[in-house]
Amino acid sequence: MAKVCPVSKKGSRVGGGYSNRTRATQFNPTGFIRKYPNLQKKRIYVPELKKTITLTLSTKAIKTINKRGAYSVLKKAGVI
User: Fold this and answer.
1) Which of the residues 36, 39, 42, 46 has an alpha carbon 20 to 30 A from that of 53?
2) What is the pLDDT of residue 15?
3) Region labeled Disordered — which residues (predicted)?
4) DSSP states of 3-58 as a string?
């Protein structure tokens, strides 16, 4: 399963883990934590091609496809 959305190009990011104790003392750093995007496996029917494509998309990309149409969004992203 892909870790990057092909439409929105969202992937994992590194964020700082920060505890309240660290805020209180300005010491004891907790290190970094990797945060992953909300990726979902979706089957999308493209009527212009008369095909069904299975992609791993972020939820933001799914909303964009619902709003603008599958063919235009996937063509702009270079998926089809």
Assistant:
1) 36
2) 83
3) 1-21
4) SS-TTT----EEEE---HHHHHHS-----EEEE---EEEEEEEETTTTEEEEEEEE
Angle between helices 70-77 and 59-68 (to 10 degrees): 120
Judge whether 69 and 15 are in contact, CB under 8 Å. Answer: no
Distance separating alpha carbons of residues 27 and 23, to the nearest angstrom:
8
Domains, in order of start, for the chain: 13-77 (2.30.170.40)
Distance CA(25)–CA(33), nearest Å, equals 21
Q: Per residue in 46-68, is it b (16+ CB within 10 Å) or e — as a string?
A: beeeeeeeebebbeebbebbeee
In this prediction the pTM is 0.81
Q: For 44, list phi and psi in degrees, rounded to 5.
A: -120, 125
